[in-house]
Amino acid sequence: MGKDRDTMIDFLLAAYEGEPEHKELEARLEALTDEQLKEEYEEAVEALTADTDIGDLLEFAH
User: Fold this and answer.
1) Which DSSP letter does residue 23 get?
2) Most CB contacts within 10 A, which of 8, 21, 39, 50?
3) Is the pTM of this model over 0.85?
4) What phi and psi, each to the nearest 5 degrees, are found at residue 21?
5) Is 1 helix (H, G, I), strand (E, B) or coil?
6) Residue 33 CB neighbour total at 10 angstroms
7) 41 closest CA partner among 26, 29, 53
């Protein structure tokens, strides 16, 4: 998975930059299988977009 894997890990770690749990989370994410990491990434993206209204996005884009 290579670069995609690194990108997903970076995305999941971004909110923890400078926090004490950053290194622990990084180690946990790196230990996941590709499938487990993909699931965790998809859950995070879904959680971020769950409250997003497409109408708001379209209005913002104009």
Assistant:
1) H
2) 8
3) no
4) -80, 0
5) coil
6) 9
7) 29
